[in-house]
């Protein structure tokens, strides 16, 4: 009877020790798994930073913008080691169609000859070597940016402004591009139509679940007009 009880007691101790060991192995495995996940996350973030930095360097160096962006996107999808379907579902295809339609429309509009006629009418009053000419240019860019959006405005006026500036002096070509870049960018803030980004924000704000907001044209305009005028004037003063 004694030996039976002693044997049973020893067996219980062995079982208890076994459970403790098993728990220790589980904790050790969980710790290794956590450390591995941490290093994978650090490696993934580092790769994302490197790819993004490489894309920015390529853009600054003048490499083709479209191929640079596509290459960076493919590299990130490959590094993710996951099915690309969730990423592709996040692509705003309606926005892509908007831009495609916008560029085709602008190209067709440009071939009508109306932009050339408009520029020939405005050019004598928009000489870049005079403050009044810069003011006329700024007003023209702001108006066009909020009628056809700022990207088409750059496509319509870019070459024409540069050619006009080159006729005055080659030194003014760089200044004409700076004026166009600055004014068209800031002009996009004036109204919802000024920039595609504004329309995206308006659409996203209305669709946000439980946090939606109806950003109307007039509510944006009352903040956009004064800020656009002030910031544009400051930038033109610095460029001049």
From TrEMBL:
Tell me, in one coarse class, where this protein mainly resides.
Answer: membrane
Which domain of life does the UniProt lineage start with? Eukaryota
Question: InterPro entries per the record?
Answer: Cit_transptr-like_dom
Q: Keywords, A to Z?
A: Cell membrane, Membrane, Transmembrane, Transmembrane helix, Transport
Span-the-membrane segments of this chain are 48-79, 91-110, 130-157, 177-201, 221-239
UniProt-annotated location(s):
Cell membrane
Q: What name has this protein been given in UniProt?
A: Citrate transporter-like domain-containing protein
The species this protein belongs to is Populus alba x Populus x berolinensis
């Amino acid at each position: 009877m004694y030996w039976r009880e002693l044997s049973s007691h020893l067996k219980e101790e062995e079982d208890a020790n076994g459970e403790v060991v098993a728990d220790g192995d589980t904790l050790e495995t969980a710790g290794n798994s956590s450390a591995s996940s941490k290093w994978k996350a650090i490696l993934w973030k580092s790769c994302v930073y490197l790819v993004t930095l490489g894309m920015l360097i390529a853009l600054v160096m003048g490499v083709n913008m479209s191929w640079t962006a596509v290459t960076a996107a493919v590299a990130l999808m490959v590094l993710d080691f996951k099915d690309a379907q969730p990423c592709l579902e996040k692509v705003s295809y309606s926005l892509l169609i908007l831009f495609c339609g916008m560029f085709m429309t602008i190209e067709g509009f440009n071939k009508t000859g109306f932009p050339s006629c408009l520029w020939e009418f405005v050019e004598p009053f928009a000489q870049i070597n005079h403050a009044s000419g810069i003011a006329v240019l700024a007003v023209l860019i702001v108006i066009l940016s909020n009628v056809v959006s700022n990207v088409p405005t750059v496509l319509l006026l870019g070459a024409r402004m540069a050619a006009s500036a080159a006729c005055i002096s080659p030194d003014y070509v760089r200044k004409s591009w700076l004026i166009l870049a600055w004014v068209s960018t800031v002009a996009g803030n004036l109204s919802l139509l000024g920039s595609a980004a504004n329309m995206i924000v308006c659409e996203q704000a209305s669709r946000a679940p439980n946090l939606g907001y109806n950003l109307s044209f007039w509510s944006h305009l009352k903040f956009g007009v004064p800020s656009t005028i002030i910031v544009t004037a400051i930038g033109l003063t610095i460029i001049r």
